[in-house]
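Here we describe the complex-level prediction in full. Unlike the single-chain runs in Section 2.1, the two entities below were treated as one system.
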Amino acid sequence: MQVSYYPGCTLKTNAKNFETSALAVLDRLGVTAQELEDWYCCGVCFSQASDNLMQQIAPIRTLVKAKESGNPQLLTLCTMCYNTLKRSVEFIKADEEKLETIHKFMDREATRFYGDEVDVIDVLSLIKQIGLDKLKEAVVKKVKNLKIASYYGCMLLRPKEIAIDSPDDPSIMEDIILASGCENVYFPFRTECCGSYQIVNEPDIVKTRAKKIIGSALKNGADLMVILCPLCYYNLDEVQAEIRKEDPRFQTLPVLYITQLLALLLGLDLDIHDFSLHSVDPRPVLKRKGLL
Amino acid sequence: MTKKKAISSRKLTSEDADQLHDISGVNVYACYQCGNCSASCPAVEFMDIPPHLVIRLAQLGFIDELIEAETPWICAACITCTVKCPRGVDIAKVMEGLRQIVLRRDFEHINIREIDKKLREKLPQIALIGNFRKTIL
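The structure predicted for the assembly as a whole is:
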């Protein structure tokens, strides 16, 4: 099986270990993710203004490239990219007049995109589509009592029109964790915002959020937290180290991309993980649980 | 918001209120002030006006007061309020509308040059680009 793949900017820099681990896991499960020959920044935050068509052009251009690739599905690993591309599809499908205006700016594109030709898919839904049984079969390292807190963040669940699961009570991450042989830890902050880009100007908001999210996962007995969004990753991993500097009593929790955990359980090459990218070192707990 | 505000027909029919409606496409009058948005907002403790009050003030035409407030800039568009609203009011779009009114008058809310160089090099691009939505568009 083959899907087109849209990396987005952060997967090529801060989140390299997300890209390498996800592509390796998918490869093991029989899916080839073929990177688009040409792609553009999605714009990160979907423009919510009803009259701002300029910010829809970049995501639509990428979708044109995806259509030209011939694959019916376009994989996005970064959840911000997923959210922006998916909402742009919904935006043009809902309004023919706006679609027409956007098309007028597509001077260099020979192909027209109307909304239904490409299915934008996130990695969790893709794994579910491949089959949780297949994932279960592929697991080579059996672990005992490894308790995982799955953190969804916002971008895969809201708004509800593009949600991959129930926005209030999702279970797709927990289903994957269960199939991979780990135990789930439920904590009330798993779908709450980490503070997002406020890290740039209002870091106190992110610190407050990170303390609550990490504290809640630890209180419920988590050994590790798994996530998908590279921005949540920064806000929950890097910021933990900053909080620790200010408050030595703060207890830290290692954070991994969910595909990194799966790669370890599937026994894939350890070189795909660059553990130096982690501020809270996950290696001690991984060694203790027999994954390293 | 401790000062008393006078409601007048001039406020209710102001051009700013029309602009907010045009940009956001949201009918704020559907709100019946249940407060679910403020109860679910993860950043409400940092806001000067809680989300349900933003909608109330928008209903009454207090757009000047809203665009001077910090709340729209604290909102990071996590869309929890919109999902929780029993009346289908897209509060996140109202916040975007308020930010847009300011930015379209050529008022920068953040200055990129003021972002610490070390931080700028360390942050993921998605944090920076997301934040640039608060500069002139």
